[in-house]
Amino acid sequence: MKPFELLEGQPAGGDRYIGLTLKGYLDAHTVTEFESHMDRSIEQGGRRYLLDVSELSYISSAGIGALMGLTQRLRREQGELVLLRPNEKVFKILEKLGFTKIFRLAWTREEGERMLGV
After folding, report:
1. Strands (E), 1-118
2. 3 state SS for 57-115
3. What pLDDT digit, counting tens, does each position of 56-103 carry?
4. Most distant pair of Cα atoms in the chain: their distance
5. Tens digits of residue pLDDT in 2-23
6. 51 with 20: CB under 8 angstroms?
7. Which of 1, 7, 34, 110 could bond 21 through an S-S bridge, CB–CB 3.0 to 4.6 Å?
């Protein structure tokens, strides 16, 4: 497996939100690629994101910082980010650091869509 993969797919129903899947590691070595992709997507009008992190093996403080910056940016622009199905390892990291109170977490796609208001 590559250390990091970001896959984008459109949900049924068009442009209500952008569905992304993160795989591998989101850390100091991969965060620039993630941020660049998200910058381009937002510049093209993206505002609502459902980010499937179920296959994210590891997230470092750099990765959490990138997600926090993205969340703040989207909320300033009336957008939103929902993290979908964090696995046990990633959830424990987020919980231990208090980020489960900041990030919107969903356990099903339907729950995530409700959180995004679609």
Report:
1. 4-9, 18-26, 48-59, 80-84, 104-106
2. EEECHHHHHHHHHHHHHHHHCCCEEEEECCCHHHHHHHHHCCHHHCCEEECCHHHHHHH
3. 999 999 999 999 999 999 999 999 999 999 999 999 999 999 999 999
4. 36
5. 688 888 876 544 668 999 999 9
6. yes
7. 7
Residue with tokens 């470092």: 60
**Domains of the chain, first to last:** 4-116 (3.30.750.24)
> CB neighbours of 111 closer than 8 A, spacing ≥ 6?
none
How many residues in total does the chain contain? 118
Q: pTM of the prediction?
A: 0.92
